[in-house]
Write a structure and sequence with these properties.
Blueprint: H1 18-27, H2 32-58
Length: about 70
């Protein structure tokens, strides 16, 4: 049998969450499909949060030039 595919879990800021991956691997309460679904959901939320932050940065009003 092939070994199970590694499951990567991500924090809200988009970085890999090694502690959560270790807990999921050692506990074994969730199926790999559930873990992957949770990871994908967290990745989507992180992407949405990052998009919201970048959108706020892009739409900041320009400083007005002082009249001569």
């Amino acid at each position: 049998m092939n070994p199970p595919r590694p499951v990567f879990l991500y924090r809200a800021d988009g970085r890999i969450d090694y502690q959560a991956m270790h807990r999921a691997a050692t506990r074994g309460l969730k199926s790999s499909k559930q873990i992957r679904a949770d990871a994908e959901r967290a990745a989507r939320e992180a992407a949405k949060a990052a998009e919201k932050v970048s959108f706020q940065v892009e739409t900041k009003p320009r400083p007005r030039a002082l009249p001569p």
